[in-house]
Design a protein that fits this description.
It is a single chain. By secondary structure, this protein is mainly β. It has a domain at 49-84. Helix content is 0%, strand content 13%. The chain has no helices and three strands. Strands 1-2-3 form a three-stranded antiparallel β-sheet, with no helix packed on it. Strand 1 and strand 2 (68-73) form a beta hairpin. It is rod-shaped, with a radius of gyration of 33 Å.
Length: 136
């Protein structure tokens, strides 16, 4: 048991091996800084419980599973899967992330025959009229 602070300085590699279970309890916060890569391998599962989970990456966040991949990068969010199933309502909101749209509305007018453009009132907007009718 250490009554107060403990500092350990290892000049090169360090390896700890526990034959069975290993528990660590910290009364305050934990910070772990790694200069290279950080890997965790678990034979069964990895669990975490917290109030807020925030992941931040400079280039991309990738979540891979047997059914597909979620990729978040500077181009947006890509869902790559054989099928997408949404349970619950889907809401689309306007904002900077929305795709381009065309402004405008259809102008109301008279219905016309799709083959010859003849309108219901007997006039034709096409000149010359393909059916031989008089123009509008």
């Amino acid at each position: 048991a250490t009554g107060r602070d403990r500092t350990e300085d290892v000049g090169n590699n360090r390896r700890d091996k526990t034959a069975a279970n290993h528990w660590i309890e910290t009364g305050g916060h934990v910070e772990h800084k790694v200069q290279g890569h950080f890997q965790v391998h678990a034979g069964e599962r990895i669990e975490g419980k917290t109030v807020t989970l925030e992941l931040q990456a400079a280039q991309s966040v990738v979540i891979k599973g047997p059914g597909g991949t979620i990729n978040i990068d500077d181009s947006g969010i890509t869902l790559d899967a054989g099928a997408l199933v949404f349970k619950g309502p889907i809401n689309q909101q306007s904002g900077a992330a929305s795709g381009p749209s065309m402004a405008g509305a259809a102008t109301p007018g008279l219905a016309m025959d799709l083959l010859c453009a003849l309108r219901a009132d007997g006039t034709c907007p096409r000149v010359p009229c393909p059916c031989g009718m008089q123009g509008a």
